Amino acid sequence: MSQPVNYNDRPWLDPEAEPFIKVQSVSKHFGDFTAVDSVDLEIYKGELFSLLGGSGCGKTTLLRMLAGFETPSSGSIVIDGVNMNNVPPYERPVNMMFQSYALFPHMTVENNVAYGLKRDGVARSEIDRRVADMLSMVELTQFAKRKPHQLSGGQRQRVALARALVKQPKVLLLDEPLGALDKRLRDQTQYELMNIQERLGVTFVVVTHDQEEAMTLSTRIAVMDAGRFMQIGTPTEIYEFPNSRLVAEFIGNANMFEGRVTENGPDHVAIEGKNPKCDFYIDHGMSIAEGTKVWIALRPEKIRISKEKPANGGINSVRGMVHDIGYLGGTSTYRVQVGDGHLVEITSTNQSRPKDVNPPIDWDEEVFLHWEPSSSVVLTK
Amino acid sequence: MSVPAETVLPAGQSLGFRLRRRLLYLVQHHWRGLVLVIPFGWLLIFFLAPFFIVLKISVAEAIIASPPFTPMIDWVSDGIMHVRIVIDNYAYLWEDDLYVNTYLNSIKISTISTILCLLLGYPIAYAIVRSSHTTKHILLMLIILPFWTSFLLRVYAWMGILADQGLINDFIRWLGYEPIRLLYTQTAVYIGIVYTYVPFMILPLYANMEKLDWELLEAAADLGARPMTTFFTITLPMTLPGIIAGSLLVFIPATGEYVIPDLLGGGNVLMIGRVLYNEFNANVDWPVASAVAIALLLVLVLPMMLYQHIQGKQVEGK
Amino acid sequence: MNGKRPVFLWSVLIFGIAFLYVPMLLLVIYSFNSSRIVPIWGGFSTKWYGELFDSPEIWEAVSLSLKIATVNACFATILGTLAGLALVRFGRFKGRTLFSGMISAPLVMPEVITGLSLLLLFITMQEFIGWPDQRGFTTITIAHITFSMAYVAVIIQSRLSGMAQDLEEAAQDLGAKPFRVLTDITLPLLAPGMLAGWLLSFTLSLDDLIIASFVTGPGAVTLPILIYSRVKLGLRPDINALATIIILVVAIGVIVAGYIMLRQQKQREREQSMTANES
Hints:
The structure holds three protein chains of three kinds. Chain B is mainly α.
């Protein structure tokens, strides 16, 4: 078993590292519909890799091609150096945890977990041992003799996980692993899943539509839309440096401003906003021609709101009118109308109680928004 | 299992054992083909082929021989093939008022019976759907239970009720009126058909109503629709698939019905099923019986295809 | 909806149930009538039961019908299950439309037509290949299988399409080859459907008069054929006795089955509420 990936060594940055799963220009068509459109992907050993996207983006189809339930219309999938194109699902070194868990309703928990080992012709005594180990790992030993319908949702999820892991697959595929659980259980299970992955060092490929889940779990995320990858990167990269408006808007919330590059210096870029009319100053250089139309993404939590005019002469700041306030306990969300009807969302932490803020910000008040030169993300597409 | 059976088996194993191994190998490796070929083959031989035989005989001439019809293909001495197709049987059906009237009467009886079944079955299905969980199960069981008892005996039961000395006439006599003729009339046939086929109406209606979103009715009421308006604008259109399925399930078999007109209608009620049966068994006129069958099929082919369409959509549409 | 039950609906419901059951009840009552003329009450008697049990004809017909029904049910279940599997799990194949048409056609085909066409087939086959050399048990069974398998196929089809395909995929994922998936997962899960299909085929066969009377031959008298030949001439008290026995057997069977199903359902509900409390 290899060591799991930690954040200090990042195999995807190492040109020498050999990827464990290689997806090479794979497409999948269903009639006229293209579910996966010529994608390339490299996943390294021990990663917890997420495929993130809305429904119909092709993430499940890609996962099913890794499992072998769909064959690529073109391209190839290589796992651990072996081309998988003509390998049926029952001979692949991967196992899948289904969204519905797909537990066999006519078998006990024990037999569900043992099923895969029996198919491999593992000796009876070893099956018993491995099943017992696995059940104790997912804390289900006392439920071994139960049928799936006698278990709660969380317990079923753990049976499904145990059943897929007991065969010690090279890759574990998880289709919306937390989708069927309620919010509270989901948060808890999320960390359990990470612990198990770290402990066993198995490569996980997770399909999810939940960006929070993807952010928490993954070493890297691939954001998918319409059968293509929009961006592949670590959670931080994707959140802080989205490469397109779509990614910026899909991962978390982002305020978008349209603008035009007015100045392109070696260590800074200046952009003139169109609506609202304001000047953006970015404190690093970029390879962008002057006059290019761009979008600027600003995360709600990166904008500060105050009643006093900031002292930097109107750069990276704009005046507006409070339109809505949403008090969420730990944070408050303000929607501020700037320029010509454009609404900007701001999240601010409630560090002190509202009555202590002197005076509090109220509806229809004039406020000033400002942000750091490093906070804006400039997007060209 | 990919090792050939012979190499695994020591010499001298019994032939039966070897055969079993062979068979096992066959099943394990070609089961997909077998799954398809066995039922498909069965139906081709015992369902499709017979129709072509009926079609063939319906264009032959009746003769006194065994089998009692002329062959379609004659081999004249020099190897010349002689194909004989006689459409006289169909012309005969068309020209003879007896057959035309029988067809029309069958359609009339089954149409009216279908409407009666709908009028009786719709409120019953509705009442079952709206009853509580346990009551629903008991009522459904009560509707299905007659299915499992003999159809013939249920028709027979009505012979006793409708007879001149039967229960209904006893009651009429007790009231002081003249007894009326019920058995061996068209009315008896209607009663018999409604009695035996009303569960076929109730069950599809129930299945359809069970899936309805009853909040829609509350929404309609909330928007100001009176109960009658709600029924005609919401309930009825939404239960239409159930109505169509149930009606076809009553109409199709009722049109070809034999036992009910025979036992309850006596000789007075002409229905195609009965004519076909008699033509074949009493008159031994196979070509005409075959022509009657083909003509009956033509009458029913549209409703049958409609039913299959609905059924197919239901099964495949999950 | 308010809690008040609409009077109209319930009166129709009660009328409907009475309409279904009163004739059967009368059959039972008159089976204990000592008078030979069925509708005229002549006092309580069980003599018709005695007469019924003494008649060897009845016993022969019952045993023939049961034999046919059993063989039919077994074959129809196998063939119908195979057909259902092929239709739901094999996707598109050549001749699928014809196949699915042939599978569901017997459900709505008038019995007189099925009976006539099968008889003509048997006669033709006898003429050309010498088989079946006589009509009776074999021909009736074949005819019954042909229409019973359609009912089984419909049950299996709806079970299969309701059954999530990911169970079968999960088995494959865990290393089961397609045939193994069939025997380990698909068939066990289809078992209740197959049982339902078997029972339905069994009853359909026991109940069939018309197709059997077309394809039967001399000497092979099934129970419905026997009953029919007797009631055609009028009411007979021994037939009432027979009907009473049949109704009794069916009622007991259905009540027991219903009770078992209800208990299983209650248990499942209990277990579900139990697990809800645990988690």
